[in-house]
Each structure stands twice: as C-alpha cells, then as structure tokens.
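Same chain as my last thread, 104 residues:
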Amino acid sequence: MSKRTSKSESSLVTAAREMLAHARGEIELESYEYTPPPKMDVAGIRKKLGLSQKQFADHYGFAVSALREWEQGRRNPERSTRILLALIAENPKMVEKTLAKLSV
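reply #2:
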C-alpha cells in the first residue's frame, strides 16, 4: 500500500482485517438485534404522511390488501415489515431516497 492512502481505503483495510480476525475466532465483533414493536399503528403512520391506502402501499411496496388487513387488525405485519414501518415512521424521506436508489 502506498503512503498516500485515503481515509476510506484505510477504513476498508481495517474492516477487512477485523473480518479476517473474526473469521479466525480471534476477536468478537459487536452485534445487536433490533426487536420491533409487536403492534404497529399502520393507519397512523400512513395518515401522518397524508397518503391514501393505495398511495402508501404503492409508495413503499406493500400490497393494498395486506395494508387493509393490518389497519383493520385482521393481520399483524411480519417482523421485517414492522421494521420497515418503524423506519418509515421515523424517517420517511430516508426510506424514499433509499428505495429510489434501489429501483430499476
């Protein structure tokens, strides 16, 4: 490596070394598990954003039928969906930007 490595290159090298040491069992890496709330106020999240059920479903990639079921209490969103809903509730613009980058 040259003497003129950038900060991001140095960070990548450090990360690669940590991953290798972890794989060898030499170090433990920090980890955590997020547990979303068991119930989400889906209608409240949607209404706060001023979107209809169809708009909200289309905007964030949900089936309208599933959204209706969640809002009427007939079904509870899966864990991963509750995590996405929590992110939407906290920072909808960040979710929108991220989804836009992932869209083809």
